[in-house]
Amino acid sequence: MLTDADLTRYSRQIALTNIGKAGQEKLKNSRVLIIGTGGGGSAAALYAGAMGIGTLGLLDPDVVELSNLSRQILYSHSDLGRFKVEAAKERILANNPDIRVNTYPFAANGENLADLSEDYDFILDDASGLQTKFMINDVLATCRKPYAFAGTNWYNMGKVGTVAGGSACFRCMLDLPADLPADTRPGPVRVIGPLLGVIGSIQAMEAVKYLVGGHDLLRDRVLMFNLVTLSMKISPVEKRPNCPFCNAEGETVKGEVSRGERT
Fold first, then answer.
1. What is the pTM of this model?
2. Does domain 18-236 have CATH number 3.40.720.10?
3. How does pLDDT run across 228-237, given as a tens digit for each residue?
4. How many whole angstroms separate alpha carbon 222 and alpha carbon 73?
């Protein structure tokens, strides 16, 4: 049940007819796991907590480094050397002390992710590296756990998609071989903070739409956003009939689904 403080804190979103008190109660009773609390995960976690998702899980093995601070807005200079998940928990609860934040200061793998995912209603994949994202997809698609992924191509292009309800999975969307080698491009990863803020915010909204229900999800579609040209495109993705991870029927998606390409 929503408290008087809840009604005040979330009054602006409760006023939305497609959320309302009933939707806010669903958020309060929901659990979302965020894999990776870097740039995209920072924005996603801050907004997920601020919007009143009752329990957040933060999974990341890293500590805060100086090079993180230009784009990972959960952290400040005083957090250098701390586990990201612990610093993130402190920041999220400082903004909204009425939610719960669970921390997991270790890397995701096939075994622990399968176990952890059972405790959450929706997952946000903000991990780095294609091999890691493939592993996350394979576990969650096999377990039929709904999740939204996000990633960047160089510094100006972001992508977001949702896998739920027996939809095409991340492997179908990329259609790349399972034994793809690790990224060997020279030099540091090229990315700019505001782009990560955009895609992380979209991810958080996908979680809210799924949890509240009755919304159009990025299911069987990929949203591509170019921060430099400010262009956005949503392209359909077909499920591969021979995909070993998502070719069986999954759970029923909560959000309404429509397909087709949009710009």
1. 0.89
2. no
3. 899 999 999 9
4. 25
